[in-house]
Amino acid sequence: MRGARALSVLDPGGSTTQAPADAPRATPRSLWRSWIVYSLSSLANRLVGFVMLPIYTRVLSPEEYGIRAMVTVGMDLVGMVCWLGITTAMVRHYTANTAAEDRADAVSTAYATGAATLAAGAVIGMLAAPWLSIALLGDAAYARFIRLGLITLFFTNSMEIGLAYLRLRQRVATVSLVSLSTLAMTLATNIALVVVLRWGVVGIFYSEILTYGLFSIFIARRTLREVGLSFSWPLARRMISYGAPLTLMPASWLLVNRTAGVFLTHHDSIAAAGIYSLAMQCAQVLFLAVISPFREAWDPGQFELARDPQASRTYRRMFQTFTFTIVIAGLVFAIAAEDVIRLMAAPKFHSAAGIVPILVASHVVLGMTLFFKTGLLVKNRTALLGAIGVVTAAASVAASALLVPRYLAFGAAYSRLAALVVMATLTHVMAQRVWPQRPDFAALAKVGALAVAGFTVSRLVPVTPLIASLAFKGGIVAAVVALSVLVGAIDRRELRRLFTILRQRLARKRSSPLPDTAI
Question: How do the domains of the chain map onto residue ranges?
Answer without folding.
Answer: 25-59+244-513, 62-231
